[in-house]
Design goal:
Largest interface: C-D, 107 and 86 residues
Shape of chain B: elongated
Number of strands of chain A: 28
Distance between the termini of chain A: 41 Å
Largest sheet of chain A: 10 strands, parallel
Distance between the termini of chain B: 50 Å
Largest sheet of chain B: 13 strands, mixed
Strand content of chain A: 15-25%
Strand order of the largest sheet of chain B: 5-1-6-8-9-10-11-12-13-14-17-16-15
Structural class of chain A: alpha/beta
Number of helices of chain A: 17
CATH superfamily of chain A: Metal-dependent hydrolases
Helix content of chain A: 25-40%
CATH class of chain A: Alpha Beta
Number of helices of chain B: 3
Oligomer: heterotetramer
CATH architecture of chain A: Alpha-Beta Barrel
Helix content of chain B: under 10%
Radius of gyration of chain B: 19 Å
Strand content of chain B: 25-35%
CATH topology of chain A: TIM Barrel
């Protein structure tokens, strides 16, 4: 039992904005009305947040593990977590090891993460890695938008079948929902092509367009009653002028719930790399008038990182542009992924536009319940740099200083210099915790309400440096256990995984088996991840319609 | 006065001793130096368990003994000198920024790896990856000079960006692999795959080389820069032939597979 | 600088119309590779199966696999690296002389055709075996082929993949990457992982005598390593886990018999394309599993004092 | 006697890791491995559930499992630079324990890949 007393509490889920109140935690790791006895943590003069929730990150699975192998030079220079008698060692950096991933997230007060891209074939592998990420709770999303068995059903107009296929895959992968990447484009990339127009049929299909895939998949996610709506990585990522594709995609989503991933990468105007400019105004306006759609920023921070996405065409372009290392991994029948180490530089005009665009979206979308903190780790920057973004959001003066590093020709290409908005602590708590938890449908996360998981962060305000405040919480509690205290990792307990079991037609197995055997190289029976492999889980069975 | 280190106890397993560096010991007393931590395998022990130390700290160090298992000596040194009497282990002078290292004996692998500047002179033989990049890094040595009187192992100067490596004896395979700049002088030639995948830079060999197929054989010549370069090398007591009456250099350009703009000059005595 | 461009075997099965095996003999070493994953399969994109695919075998000698190939190219021993580098130059239209080509055992005509096939296929895949990766040049030979495959993506879709032998060695690679950041050749002597093949790789460590105890599992270095390495294993306390009494068991101070994986021990194994598969043991072994024995050793060690000094820092900047 | 059947069993002999093998066994010995290649068949048929070897040997003498585990832990704990090597013919679960072992020991960790 723990009582946190005297702290200013920011709990947007319950409308609490800086009120001094006690938070009580029982022995089951839940927040309760009151307790008798137990430890008291004096948080007088400090601020109390619900634990952070990362709605979109890449921390486990084949792709990030590929990136680890490609960047030994980064591991050599990064933060090392030293082995203790009870705690495993690890390395931070651009693609941290699993153990370090847990330490780093918890170390800045994040207690729940969503691994946003899992090919079903590597789901078993991803769960093994997730199990090795300590402290935080985890969810994962299955990559669907280029799955050929599903696309065939959509092409044939068999919506119900397509829906069952999606449900079957979610359950086979033991995941929490659906991620759609570059719908139709990855399938085309396997032939070295891309899908850039929402209304032209994709390579290999007669009438199936990316637009139709987007609409139907969003409908499927709604009909399956997934707690998290379709999580969409739009077509045409990173390309000048792609904002029109993005808006067009959003229009295909009218009437559906959806979460748009890393919208910074989808908010550009211009015709080429020289004329690229920010079009975040347009995109933010769309969000401001469509409150049922959420997004995460996918903000870019200057410095080294490794880009890794299921968007193979974009990766090949980056490889050609940078001449650096390139890894690419295509997965049968499902998806592909590419990996390129990259350095974002303020002197580079394109990078400067990207940097500004991410912040602009966070500042121009008015409702923090709609736009969340993310860097699309590791693509725009490493997740452990989130405190830098918080500082940029909270201090207009600091933004102005940073703007001075940008090249002169940036003038007129970005909106950031004209924006004065500064996030309040309440808005930060919304954008990094309450909002993403709600979008993910995790009802016990992102809230300090009675009955919620006692994931609590206590920061000591450092008025001279907000980034420092958020990078070094005084205490972090995970399920009521003090895991970080005075900057040290005290405990590294295992977190749990969130899974859903969607409803599907009884004959789905029989339907899937012959199609499966047609395109995969492993046995149908050996393919689904066994439920008992996931040791600590929170399983939600979804009702039929 | 130099600080003198004598190995008194032969390490059983590798001894990682990056504290044996002028930058670390310069301002320390003898007693403090003795207490510096070295890693005998995984055991963290005081330096004095393995070394007798004479004198207080200075920027000049002398090491004596069979130091084959002693690694990381003079890591990232920026000043002074290190003189080794005996054989020395891996990573000698890796990341070195300035100063001078002399080895009167043999050196192991990765000497001067990713060094930025300074001079390393090995009077015996060296191992592989001299002045090379560590795994995954884009660039090996960025400047400075490494002289090996004897032979060297695999991947000499791998991905080097600038600076000079001079080998008195032969090099093994992949000398100048993925080289990006700088100069390698081979007085006794090399085994195979010299200059493989090189982008830029120069390899000068005084003995015939077995060339990679992806180098184009161009003209024979005596470039004037060699004249200047030969004079530059005289400070290290290296004689590079350049007089037209003594012979000429055959020039190979490559590696075409990259395609790169490196050159390999092979001396053809008259 | 190159990279690694690869795919799962299902992609090869479905799409690859051009397949190269380099330095491997799948007919005898991976007998079902042809039929299950590559040339013999029919798919929606390659409905006629073998007829829709072209296979080239490159090796230093004509093995049984050559019978299955459309073209067999006999490279001179030790010239793989040179040949791959020539191909890298040729796909970029760089001039290589006939004499240089012939030095690898090839002719210009043969290579022109190969380059043409590589550039004009719809989906190409190169598999490379130990004939490439374990001969002179070693990891550079593999790097050459991976780079060639990456560069071919300027013209078409092209991937490359090692033909891993040795059971579940891929699993070890994958797990070490996520737990330590590195695939093999790791030391934890500073309390966190560091990596340097050549320094921390086993043959080098043993030959130089750089370790003073060895724990060997799922391998028999006593039978396969060079003599100086074996001699060192004899000198130091060696512990060996194996379902059989092996050469290593005989020189070891401690041998523990364990259940063979997949036959009597359950768990997971990774296929060469890094896909994990569940194991379904048929038999119940009288011996414990490897997993159980190593876990018990770990538990036993937990009871002993920890080796790191008290008060050592918990984090630091890595040093390598 | 009727044999028991395991469907879709996985063969770990080579990197193909075929997972469509049908094993026919009598609990002691596998009599048939359908769909397996020659290498896989040999692999399955050459292992039995018989107790052919001692549980453990310590310094060449038969020992109990407990004694052997204690001896192993003792040697590894004493060493200044222990090596953990191999991991080809074993499960991922055991490999994870091996990585944990090397981490706990502060030793070297390496697989067949480095050969």
């Amino acid at each position: 039992m723990i009582r946190i007393t005297g702290g200013k509490v920011y709990d947007p889920a319950n409308g609490i904005d800086g009120e001094v109140k006690d938070i009580c935690i029982d022995d089951n790791g839940r927040i309760v009305e009151s307790i008798d006895g137990g430890r008291t943590i004096d948080a007088t003069g400090m601020i109390v947040f619900p634990g952070g929730v990362d709605v979109h990150t890449h921390v486990a699975g084949g792709a990030i593990n590929f990136a680890r192998a490609m960047t030994p030079e980064d591991h050599r220079r990064t933060q090392a977590f030293i082995r203790t008698k009870t705690r495993r060692s690890g390395l931070g950096g651009m693609a941290p090891t699993t153990f370090a991933t847990g330490y780093l997230y918890a170390g800045m007060g994040f207690t729940t993460v969503n691994e946003a891209a899992v090919p079903v074939l590597s789901a078993r592998h991803t769960h093994e890695e997730l199990a090795d990420i300590p402290i935080v709770d985890k969810a994962s999303l299955t990559l669907m938008a280029n799955n050929e068995i599903m696309l065939d059903q959509m092409q044939a107009g068999e919506y119900e079948r397509a829906k069952n296929v999606v449900a079957w895959y979610i359950w086979a992968a033991k995941s929490y929902g659906v991620k759609a990447v570059n719908p139709g484009g990855v399938a085309a990339w396997k032939w070295g092509e891309d899908a850039k127009q929402l209304t032209s049929p994709i390579e290999g299909y007669s009438n199936l367009t990316p637009g139709k895939i987007v609409t139907q998949l969003a409908q499927i996610c709604d009909d399956l009653k997934l707690p998290h709506p379709m999580h969409l990585h739009c077509n045409n990522l990173g390309a000048p002028g792609n904002v029109s594709t993005t808006i067009d995609t959003l229009k295909h989503l009218e009437g559906h719930r959806a979460h748009i991933a890393h919208s910074q990468y989808h908010a550009y105007g211009g015709d080429d790399w020289d004329s690229i400019c920010s079009q975040t105004g347009q995109l933010a306006e769309y969000f401001n008038t469509h409150p049922h759609i959420t997004t995460d920023a996918g903000a870019v921070l200057f410095g080294d990182t490794v880009t890794i996405t299921a968007d193979g065409p974009w990766q090949h372009l980056l490889y050609k542009l940078t001449g650096r290392k390139w890894g690419n991994l295509d997965v049968e029948n499902e998806t592909g992924c590419g990996i390129v180490p990259y350095t974002y530089r303020p002197s580079n005009l394109v990078n400067a536009v990207q940097w500004a665009s991410g912040l602009e979206l966070l500042l121009l979308i008015k409702n923090p319940w709609q736009v969340f903190l993310s860097t699309d780790h590791p693509n725009g920057g490493c997740f452990w740099r989130y405190p830098e973004i918080i500082k940029l959001l909270m201090c207009a003066d600091f933004r102005k200083e940073c703007l001075e590093q940008l090249p002169d020709k940036i003038k007129g290409k970005i909106l950031l210099p004209e924006i004065d908005r500064e996030y309040t602590l309440y808005e930060i708590a919304t954008s990094m915790s309450a909002g993403p938890a709600k979008a993910l449908g995790l009802t016990k996360k992102g809230s300090l309400g009675v009955g919620c998981d006692a994931d609590v962060v206590i920061y000591e305000e450092d008025p001279t440096d907000i980034a420092r405040t958020f990078a070094h919480p005084r205490y972090v509690l995970k399920a009521g256990e003090v895991v970080i205290e005075e900057g040290d990792i005290r405990e590294a307990p295992d977190g749990q995984e969130f899974l859903v079991k969607p409803h599907m037609a009884a004959d789905t197995d029989e339907f899937m088996q012959p199609r499966f055997e047609d395109c995969y190289t492993m046995q149908f029976e050996n393919y689904p991840v066994e439920l008992e492999r996931i040791e600590r889980k929170d399983l939600q069975e979804l009702p039929a319609e | 006065m130099s600080t003198v280190f004598r190995l008194k106890e032969q390490p059983n397993v590798p001894l990682e001793a990056e504290v044996l560096c002028p930058d670390t010991i310069a301002d320390l007393s003898n007693a403090e130096i003795r207490q510096l931590t070295v890693f005998h395998g995984k055991r963290q022990v005081p330096l004095e368990d393995f070394f007798d130390v004479e004198g207080d700290g200075s920027v000049d160090m002398e090491l004596h003994g069979d130091l084959k298992k002693v690694r990381w000596v003079a890591r990232a040194m920026t000043k002074g000198s290190v003189t080794v009497h005996g054989d020395i282990g891996m990573h000698l002078g890796a990341y070195m920024k300035n100063g001078r290292i002399d080895v009167h004996g043999d050196a192991s692998d990765w000497i001067g790896a990713e060094m930025k500047n300074g001079l390393i002179h090995v009077h015996g033989n060296a191992g592989g990856q001299v002045g090379a990049a560590y795994r995954g890094d884009m660039q090996g040595m960025k400047n400075g000079t490494i002289i090996i009187d004897g032979s060297a192992g695999l991947e000499v100067g791998m991905r080097m960006r600038r600076g000079t490596i001079i080998l008195g004896g032969p090099a093994r395979d992949f000398c100048g692999l993925e080289m990006k700049g700088g100069t390698i002088v081979l007085r006794e030639g090399a085994e195979i795959r010299t200059g493989a995948w090189m982008r830029r830079g120069t390899i000068i060999s005084l003995k015939p080389l077995q060339m990679m197929p992806t180098f184009a054989d161009s003209n024979e010549f005596n470039p004037t820069f060699l004249n200047v370069y030969a004079k530059h090398l005289q400070q290290y007591n290296i004689d590079l032939p350049f007089a037209a009456d003594a012979g000429s250099y055959q020039r190979f350009a490559g590696d075409l597979s990259v395609p790169g703009k490196g050159e390999i000059l092979v001396w053809n005595p008259a | 600088m190159g990279g690694k461009v690869t795919c799962t075997l299902g992609e090869v099965k479905q799409r690859a119309d051009f397949i190269v095996y380099w330095g491997g003999n799948p007919a005898e070493c991976h007998p079902r590779h042809f039929t299950k994953y590559t040339i013999m399969q029919k798919s929606r994109f390659l409905p006629r199966g073998r007829k829709d695919r072209t296979m080239v075998l490159v090796d230093i000698r004509e093995t049984k696999s050559a019978k299955a190939a459309d073209t067999f190219l006999q490279v001179k021993p030790g010239k793989d690296f040179e040949l791959i580098t020539i191909l890298r130059a040729m796909i970029k239209d760089q001039r290589v002389t006939d004499a240089q080509i012939e030095d690898t055992g090839m002719t210009r005509e043969v290579l022109d055709k190969l380059v043409d096939q590589m550039k004009n296929c719809k989906f190409g895949c190169m598999f490379f075996g130990m004939g490439l990766s374990m001969t002179r040049g070693k990891h550079m030979n593999s790097a050459a082929l991976l780079t060639l495959a990456a560069e071919l993506n300027a013209f078409t879709k092209f991937v490359a993949m090692p033909m891993r032998g040795h059971g579940n060695v891929t699993g070890a690679d994958v797990i070490m990457r996520w737990q330590t950041g590195y695939p093999f050749g790791i030391t934890f002597n500073r309390g966190y992982p560091r990596y340097n093949p050549g320094e921390f790789s086993t043959v080098d460590v043993l030959v130089r005598g750089d370790c003073d105890a060895a724990f060997i599992i799922g391998a028999d270095p006593g039978a396969t390593m060079p003599q100086p390495a074996i001699d060192h294993l004899k000198r130091i306390p060696t512990i060996c886990l194996d379902p059989h009494i092996t050469h290593t068991s005989k020189l070891a101070r401690v041998h523990i018999t364990t259940a063979p994986q997949g036959i009597a021990a359950p768990g997971t194994a990774y296929r060469m394309d890094e896909l994990p598969l569940p194991l379904k043991p048929a038999l119940k072994s009288p011996y414990p599993t490897d997993e159980e024995v190593v876990r018990r050793i770990n538990e036993e060690l937990q009871k002993k004092p920890f080796w790191m000094p008290e008060g050592a820092p918990l984090t630091m900047t890595a040093h390598g | 006697m009727t044999l028991q059947v395991v469907n879709n069993a996985t063969c770990t002999f080579c990197g193909c890791v075929c997972d469509d093998i049908q094993l026919h066994h009598d609990e002691v010995r596998i009599h048939e491995a359908r769909k397996a290649c020659v290498l896989g068949t040999a692999w399955f048929l050459n292992h039995t559930a018989e107790k052919k070897y001692p549980v453990a040997l310590v310094d060449g003498k038969e020992a109990t499992l407990d004694e052997a585990i204690e001896a192993a832990a003792h040697h590894l704990h004493e060493a200044d630079m222990p090596l953990v090597y191999g991991m080809s013919n074993t499960t991922c679960e055991a490999q994870k324990e091996c990585a944990a072992l090397a981490d706990q020991l502060g030793g070297l960790l390496d697989s067949h890949t480095s050969l």
